[in-house]
């Protein structure tokens, strides 16, 4: 299509059991299997880690949503890439899972009445959805900040080469995945040739003012190649800026570090390599109570391509909807379930649905769609 056949196939295309979110939840909620890294003398695996128990042990209350700052919208799973660690299981074969005009209308109405300051568009490659540009224009006309979670390579693909100019004209912040500043490590996650295509896209963006003009922020995103926690965000950002500037003449605004979530293709990778149990133990052992206050689920509402509502992007990918009910009765769980104002009233201050995967957002410096939590908070 817009890229040669992917090196990695989606779980969906392979007919893999883990293409079903329910199968992923069964793995996450069960005892970790003993893997090749655990050794013959390792202790038997215990029960799945209990995130709510970890909160209670740290004398923290159960998670609940507060003010709505960000409406994060996954417009579909269609993508021009098939990255090895993708928690969405996105790829060129996911054409059917794309947001319709009617759902985009409902999302934009919710944005309008909510007062949320940011519309965060993600995918797949969100730019491949036919509603993408209309959603950007409408949100900007409403005075909202817009984020495009971009894989960079789409900006140089046939049929999309006018995107950089469009994004710059609309003042859209670009948050772009670049898991390393070297081709070898980047291509290991994203496919052969992805790094140099990304560099080409970054140079195009720099030429439009991205990374130098404060009105055009360019954020890069790092996630580890292996089953480890990200290094300190500030130090890695400095390394990125030095290497990309010296080696490729590229500049950017800031770097986010994000922990790999044990979901979809990364979960499959962990299980295939026998590292799932070790990785989950690493996440739970690194639980940081200081990261809890800054979790994105507290101020974000996540909308799927079909309008389904979740507390965060990761819950969305596991098909975990909002908590179903409270004292006022059943809670809307899709943008089509109620008028926008009524829906908004019912989803604020809701309890947040949690699971063992939540340790991925609270390990070490914490992690989320806005990078390291503790570093970002200055704690």
Brief overview:
The protein has helices spanning 11-14, 21-29, 51-57, 101-114, 132-141, 163-170, 183-190, 194-207, 233-248, 264-272, 276-285, 313-317, 340-347, 359-362, 373-377, and strands spanning 70-74, 118-122, 145-150, 173-177, 218-222, 254-257, 300-303, 309-310, 325-326, 329-330.
Secondary-structure blueprint of this entry?
Blueprint: H1 11-14, H2 21-29, H3 51-57, E1 70-74, H4 101-114, E2 118-122, H5 132-141, E3 145-150, H6 163-170, E4 173-177, H7 183-190, H8 194-207, E5 218-222, H9 233-248, E6 254-257, H10 264-272, H11 276-285, E7 300-303, E8 309-310, H12 313-317, E9 325-326, E10 329-330, H13 340-347, H14 359-362, H15 373-377
Parallel strand pairs: 1-2, 1-7, 2-3, 3-4, 4-5, 5-6
Antiparallel strand pairs: 7-8, 9-10
Description:
This protein is α/β, with parallel strands linked by helices. 35% of the residues lie in helices and 11% in strands. The protein is globular, with a radius of gyration of 20 Å.
Number of helices: 15
Helix content: 25-40%
Structural class per helix/strand content? Answer: alpha/beta
List SSEs in N-to-C order. HHHEHEHEHEHHEHEHHEEHEEHHH
What is the overall shape? globular
Q: How many DSSP-defined strands?
A: 10
Features:
alpha/beta, eight-stranded mixed β-sheet, disordered N terminus
């Amino acid at each position: 299509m817009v890229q040669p056949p992917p090196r990695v196939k989606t779980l969906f295309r392979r007919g893999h059991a883990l293409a079903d979110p329910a199968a992923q939840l069964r793995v996450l909620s069960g005892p970790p299997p003993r893997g090749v890294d655990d050794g013959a003398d390792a202790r038997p695996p215990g029960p799945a880690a209990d995130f709510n128990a970890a909160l209670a042990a740290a004398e923290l209350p159960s998670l609940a949503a507060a003010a709505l700052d960000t409406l994060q919208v996954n417009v579909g799973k269609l993508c021009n890439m098939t990255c090895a660690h993708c928690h969405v299981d996105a790829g060129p074969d996911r054409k059917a899972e794309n947001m319709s005009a009617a759902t985009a209308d409902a999302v934009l109405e919710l944005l309008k009445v909510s007062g949320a300051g940011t519309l965060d568009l993600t995918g797949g490659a969100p730019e491949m959805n036919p509603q993408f540009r209309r959603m950007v224009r409408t949100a900007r006309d409403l005075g909202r900040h817009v984020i495009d979670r971009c894989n960079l390579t789409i900006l140089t693909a046939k049929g999309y080469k006018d995107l950089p100019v469009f994004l710059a004209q609309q003042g859209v912040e670009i948050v772009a995945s670049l898991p390393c500043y070297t081709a070898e490590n980047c291509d290991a996650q994203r496919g052969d040739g992805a790094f140099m295509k990304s560099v080409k896209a970054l140079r195009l963006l720099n030429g439009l003012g991205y990374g130098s003009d404060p009105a055009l922020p360019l954020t890069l995103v790092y996630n580890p190649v292996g089953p480890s926690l990200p290094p300190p965000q500030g130090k890695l950002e400095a390394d990125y800026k030095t290497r990309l500037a010296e080696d490729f003449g590229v500049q950017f605004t800031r770097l986010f570090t994000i922990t790999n979530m044990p979901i979809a293709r990364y979960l499959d990778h962990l299980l295939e390599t026998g590292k799932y149990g070790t990785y989950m133990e690493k996440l739970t052992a690194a639980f940081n109570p200081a990261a809890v206050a800054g979790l994105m689920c507290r101020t974000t509402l996540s909308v799927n391509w079909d309008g389904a509502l979740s507390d965060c992007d990761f819950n969305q990918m596991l098909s975990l909807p909002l908590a179903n009910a409270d004292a006022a009765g059943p809670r809307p769980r899709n943008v089509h379930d109620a008028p926008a104002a009524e829906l908004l009233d019912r989803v604020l201050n809701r309890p947040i649905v949690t699971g063992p995967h939540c340790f991925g957002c609270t390990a070490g410096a914490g992690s989320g769609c806005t990078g390291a939590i503790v570093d970002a908070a200055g704690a």
